[in-house]
Amino acid sequence: MEVDPGRSKVGDMGLASQDGASEPARADRPEPQVRTSSAERRGLNLNKLPYLVGPVAFAIIIVLMRFGYVAHVRWWVWLIVLVSVTVINVVVDRIYQAHRSARTLDLRVVSQVAAVTLVIYLTGWGPVLWAAYIFIALENMARAGSRVWRAMVLWSLVGMVIGQICLAQGWLQSELSTPAAASLNVMGGFVLYFVIHMAGAIMEQNEMALAQKEEAEAHLRLSEDRFRSLIQNSSDVTMILSDAAEFRYVSPAIKDLLHYEPEELVGLVSTDFVHPEDLHAVQTMLGGDFQSGPVTAALEFRMVRKDGMARDVEAVVSNQMNRPSVAGYVANIRDITERKKFEALLAHRALHDPLTGLANRQLILDRAQQMLERARRSGVPMAALFIDLDNFKDSNDSLGHGAGDKLLQMVAGRLLGILRSGDTVGRLGGDEFVILAEGVSFARGPEMIGERVHEVLKPAFHLPGIDGMTISVSASIGIAVGDRPSAEDLLRDADIALYRAKGAGRDQSVLFEHSMQSAAKERLTLKSNLESALEHDQFTLVYHPIFDLEGIQIQVAEALLRWQHPTKGIIEPDAFVPVLEERGLILEVGRWVLNEACREAAAWHARGHRSSMSVNVSMRQLESDQLLDDVHDVLVAHQLDPSLLILEVTESSLMRDSVATVSRLNLLKQLGVKIAIDDFGTGYSSLAYLRQFPVDVLKIDRSFVADMSRSPDAAALIHTLVELGRTLGLVTLAEGIETHEQLEGLRREHCEQGQGFLYSGPLDAGEMAALLDTARAGQPTDGAGADPRRAGAAKPRSARRRAPAAVPPSGRTGAH
C-alpha cells in the first residue's frame, strides 16, 4: 500500500523552511520535493518566465529612460545587465530544478534578490520599487512553498541595505535625495517584512488545509480500498438488492457458492435462486415489517446452485433503502452446508448408538412415549421387548472386543430385518437391545415377536476376519405390553421380565406380570440390605462333603456361602451374588470366604482330620493380582498345609484370558495349593487349552450326571470326560449324585469322587465337624447304605441347588 506523497511533502517543506531561516548557509542537506505550485496547476510554465521578463523589462526601461523617468544609463549597460541577470537566473533555476536542496534554494533566492536589487536601484528609484521583492517572494513561495518566506525577507532586506549603501556612496544614481531614499528604504523594509510574512502565513494555512484534505482523501481511498479488498476476497457473499429483489451488486464469492459469475446475476431476481421449499419462509421473513424501516433480519434457507444442487446458507439482510448511497437491501450470505451436515451428524450421534447405528436410550424413550400416546388415542396395542444376549461376555472375553463388536453389529442387522419400518430397534449398551413394536406387529401376540427374535438368532454367526470360527447366539427376552404412565415404566417392566427370563435359563422369553414387580422390589430391598451384610457378620458358610466313590470316605469339604438375613432367614447365593458383582463387593466377600474356610480347615486339621477344603474362586478374584497374596496370607495366618486347600474355578473363567489365567494359576500352584475345574463340559475349552492349565481335579457338571440314566448320549459323555481326566492324570469328581443308579454308573466308569444328596447335603461347621468325627471313629455315615435323603431331609429343595459362594456359575466364589 502506497504512502500519501502530499502529506510527506507538507511536513518536509515546513521542516526545510525552518532550517532555511535559522541556517541559511546550510546547503549540504537534500531538500525534499515540494508540492506542485498553483501556477503550474493552472498551466502556467514558470520556467519560461525569465526569458519573457528580460526583453519586456529592457523595452520598458528604454522608453522610460527616453522620457527621463528613470536615471540615465547607457542602453548597452541595461542590455548587459538584463541579459546577465536573465542568464544567471536561468542557470541557477536549472541547478535548483536538477538538485533540489536548501543550498540550491538559497542560491536561487539570492540570485533573484540580487537581480531585482540591481535593476530597481539602477533605475534611480530603488527605495520606491521595494515592492518588486514581494513579487519574487510570491513566485518562490508558489514554487517552493511557504517555508521560503523567511529567506526572502532576509535576502530582500540585505539587498535593500546594499542598495542604500550604493546610493549613499554615490555609486549609483538616484532620483531621490539621500534622506528620502533612506526613509523610504526603512519604511519599505517594514512593509516588505509584514507583507511577505502575511503571504507566507496565508500560504502555510492553505498548505495545511490542502494537506488535511489530501490526508482525508488518502484515508478515504485507503478505507475504500480496504473495504473493496474485504468484499472482493471474503468467502462470504455480499450483495445489494433493489426494492424489486433484483441483484444490483454481487461479490465474487458467489462463484464458490452458486457457481455463477457476478455479471450473470446482476439484473436477475434473487428469489429465483431460493429453494422452492424455503421460498415462502424467506418472503414472510423479509416482507411487511422488514420493508417498512431500517431493520436487520437473520435467516437460514437453501439456495439453488447453477448445477441444480442445493446449498444451505445463513443470511443477514439489512434494509438500507433510506441511505442514498445504497438505496437497497444489503445481504451478507454465508455457506453453512458443511456445518449443517456436521450438526445433523451430531444430532444423529446424540440419538443413536455409535457401534450399531441403532436408537440409543434417549431415542428409545422418546419413541416409546410417542407409542404410548398413540396407544391411548387409538387403542393400538404396543409392547417393549428387552433382549439380553446369553453368555455374550464369555464370547467377548475369549475372542476379543473387536470380534465382540462385530458380533453385536451382526445381531443388530438381524433384529432390524424382522421388523416393520414403524417399529424401533435400539441398543442400551453392552449386549442389551430393545424392540418397540405396535399395531400390525401384534397380529399373533407379543410373544410371537419374541419367538421371531429367537428364530432369527439361531443360525450361527460367521465373523469376518476369523476363519472357520462360527458363534451361536441365544437371547433372553423380557416383554412388557400395554399402557404405562411413562416410557420409563414400560422399559422398567420389560427389564423385570428379562430378569425372570434369565433366571429361567437360556433362550427364554417371559411376559411381564404384575406379581414380578413385587419380586423386583423385594430384590431391590435385598440390594440395599446387602451393603451392610458383611459388616454385621450376616454371611455364613456351609460345607458340602465330597466322598471317595469306592470306600465312601470323606475326602474334601466344599465351602458354600449363605446369607443369614435378619428377617428373611437363609438366602441362597443365586439371589445376592450377582448384586455383589454389580456393587463391586465380590472381592471383599470372596476374601472373607477364603479366610473363614481356611480357619475352619485348620481347626479340623488340629483335631486330626486330613480332609481338604475346597473354595470356589470367582472370575473377578481370578483376574485380580491380589488373589495370590490373599491365599498366601490365609495359609500363613492359619498355618494350614497348602496341599489341603483346593481352589475351584469355572471353565468359563479359565477361558476369559487364558494367558493371564495360566500365569496366575502357576503362581498359585507354587504355593502348594490344588486347582479344580468346576462345571466342566459346560464351557468352550478344548483339550489343547486344558493341557495348558495346571489343574488337579476335573469336576463333571451335575447336568450330565442327572441325564446319564435317561440319555445314552449323556452316559457316553460321562465316559468321555472320565477318560479325559484319567488321560491327563486328573482326579475326576461327579457333582449332583442323588440316586444309587447314578452312583453305580459312575463307579462303572471308574469316576473317583462324588458329591450329592445321596451322601449328604450342605452342613454347617458343627455338623461337618461331627460328621468327620463319626467317620474317623468308624461309625456308618449317611451314605450309600443309608437313606439316600436322610442327610438332606431337613433341607428345602432349593438348598440342594448348587450355587457359588460369591458368584453364580458365570463367576463363582464358593456356594451351592
Summarize the structure in words.
Helix content is 52%, strand content 16%. It contains 30 helices and 21 strands. The protein is of the alpha/beta class and 816 residues long. Helix 6 runs parallel beside helix 8. The protein is elongated.
What descriptive keywords fit this protein?
single chain, 816 residues, alpha/beta, eight-stranded mixed β-barrel, five-stranded antiparallel sheet, 21 strands, disordered N terminus, disordered C terminus
Could you give the distance between the termini?
91 Å
Question: Helical segment tally?
Answer: 30
The helix fraction, in percent, is 40-55%
Assign an overall shape.
elongated
Low-confidence stretches: 1-35, 782-816
The overall pLDDT average reads 81
Proportion of strand residues: 15-25%
Strand order of the largest sheet: 13-14-16-17-18-19-20-21
Determine the structural class based on helices, strands and strand pairing.
Answer: alpha/beta
Number of strands: 21
Main sheet characteristics: 8 strands, mixed, barrel
Radius of gyration: 57 Å
